[in-house]
Amino acid sequence: MGTQELEQGGLVGPAPAGTAVDGVPVARLARPGSVEEASQVLRAAAEDGLAVVFAGGASKLGLGNPPERADLLVSSERLDQVLEHAAGDLVVRAQAGVRLADLQAALAPAGQWLALDPPEPRATVGGVVAANASGPRRLRYGTVRDLIIGITVVLADGTVAHAGGKVVKNVAGYDLAKLFCGSLGTLGMIAEVIFRLHPLPAAAAVVTLEVEEPAQAGRAVQRLLRSPLEPSAVELVVDEWGWPGRLTTVFEGIQPGVEAQATAAAELLGQVGSAAVAGPGQTDAALSQLGALPFEKAELAFKATFPPAELPAVLAELRGRGPLRWGGSLRAHAGTGVLWLASDAREGELPADSPAVPRMVGWVTEARERLAARGGGLVVVKAPPHLKGQVDAWGPAGDALGLMRRVKERFDPDRRMSPGRFVGGI
Amino acid sequence: MDREALIRRLEEITGPQGVISERNQLRTYECDGLANFRVVPSVVVLPETADQAQGVVRACHEAGVPFVARGSGTGLSGGALPVSDGVLIVLARMRRILEVDLDNQRAVVEPGVLNLQVTKEVAGDGFYYAPDPSSQQVCSIGGNVAENSGGAHCLKYGFTTNHVTGLEVVLPDGELVHLGGGKAPDPPGYDLLGAFVGSEGTLGIATTVTLRLLRKPEAVRTLLAAFEGTDQAGDAVSRIIGAGIVPAAIEMMDALAMEAAEAAVHVHYPEGAGAVLVVELDGPEAEVAHQFDEVERLCQEAGSTTIQIAEDDDQRALFWKGRKSAFAAVGRISPDYYVQDGVIPRTALPEVLRRITELADERGLRVANVFHAGDGNLHPLVLYDGEVEGQEQRAEELSAEILYTCLDHGGSITGEHGVGFDKKQYLPKQFSAEDLDTMQLVRCAFDPDGRANPGKVFPTPRLCGERPGPRRVHPVEQAGLAEVF
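^ Those are the sequences you sent over. The predicted structure of the assembly is below.
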């Protein structure tokens, strides 16, 4: 049965005008409402040889390289059920299309949450897994790979497969859930996910430090990491690439605990610069802004990764270069070696014939070399399609690329799952 | 290539001191920590460097010979059981700590380095390596990677997979690749590191491992609470978790396990207790102090008869010694025993324990229970006497029934010991044929010839040439001419 039969049943239909993935238009849309329907859709797409792309909240469609082909967009929007919340076991099972915000709202009455805080308001849990999205609190809780304990996927030929399960501790079989983390729809569709949960912290305290320059930021972060303090997040923000920047350290837990930690942190950071424990109103404001990336309107954005101790060197090297020359902004999950950069060129302000384009391409190449020399890399997370044609979104994937290709070939021998979006043209 | 030629080839790579081929010497390696199964390997080779390890694997590949990797040989599922026509590659001589980078909180080590050695290396600087399997004094990091080892403290801190950030791996064809970002986070590409950790030696051999180091917590507090029975102890665990507290560890032992541990290490468990909990909190001083009082109160509310609080590190060590020596200590109260490893949702604990007791009674056997109560990982120890006709078989049946009980409650057949050789026939009870075929896709990408630790984990793997897929409807069936039953 091909997709035409499914169209008669209403499972597949024409995509709304303007539907595109990273500039590549997609003609047809499927919105399966169950794992079985997702399996039917992918089996039909296999029959017809269609290239398939996937969307959850559609907030990461610009991540990666543009797909080589995209015939059918499979949306998880109707897979929106929280299937099981075992509060006593700190576990939740949800369909992929559940929005993270809705999941958190469903968990909160039990005093629990999924310890992931990516900034995209529309993000779905499946999308977070596929894009390996993370936020400031990854310092304490890790990333989605550390929290996912089970997965149901639908492969290119419609096969439904599970791995992991509903118990946190489990070493039976291969950990396919991790393999799908960050795979960006190139191995198949994520249909259901099971996560371990954490208690929702009852109290928070914030310590802020003005930082004048990169070396000082580095010293401050090292002091925190070398101390027995346990911050949830250590965020560096430099707006408009103008120092001074601000280092925000967040403690979450029980009231007496966070108070004591914040006082100790303020004292510790006071040896580096002007540090203060935020007042109650400031705390709420700092938390609500925490992790917000200045990307919404930016034409170009990057994610730099590096060993955390390289922070000051990376900051110093990037300063005044490339997109930053135009007054872009920077945010770092400073304790983890993740740094987000956004140019202040607004959407549409970087046309294909702009003289800035070749400069940008040159900058990406140079930044990649510099970061690689420090053990890291640079991902282009947002760019106009014409620029993506000139620069790979991911950069080098190292000596395991051949092995990654072999994994891809096994899962998707016909290369129909989001072809071309991933590293090395996978 | 015949055996003699392969031995010569291996001797060229490691030197003659690195190759064992005499039958008597080979027998040293015929089993790992699960002694029920024994196979004498064709050759044992002990590389001393990653280069040599790569050379050995390449030689196996060229000779078309299967290989099995072994660390310290402490595994409890027969994961390092040799194959008779294959090479056993022992990584125990690769014992160097290559780098300690405290600014980035990482250590880079060879696979033969012992788990506890990592912590010893960095303890002076106030750091430690978190995963702490009970065998941590003797088990190797490479083995931990293969098994995704846990330990008592993984309730709060996670497993090996959460603490390994980079691997250098020799693939089964001898190619050397680097997985994971090492010191940098979020490397682009598939998370093959995540797929490799816990793959039980079936995807290749790790020759270098980058580990995350943690800062030692400011405060650690431990208590031992006695209860009338496991129901009350289980209730205390529920109350603690329900209060939003994540202890570093919550361990439970029942009366029989206590009896064994008492005989071995003299912890002085309270007289007449039906169960004890060891609860440990760690973290910032103010938080721990507050939550520790709460834990004490919750234990009392759940009916704890006595609570002992560790006054110092020595007493804490004693509490832990009782727990960590429990497996071996059972040897003092029973001539033979099986160590089982299953997982259930923690909340099903009372029900599952009752079922285990029923199953044991039906067979006239005793079961001592030791478990990581916080995360539902059970270690029932099935006691038997091999000299008594039929007991061993009944014990084996009981062990299997316990796993089925775990699966009935939505759990797993193994929480930390691995599937290995021992449990591969149970894997299809937990996963469907499609699930296993999908896992096999990963195997085929890494090891298309199936030479890395063959015969482990998967009961009857498909050959890599076969194309699995959804069951196709036969035309005859489609035409309504036949039905499939």
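Chain A touches chain B through 95 residues (CB under 8 Å). The radius of gyration of chain A is 22 Å.

Shout if you want it in another format.
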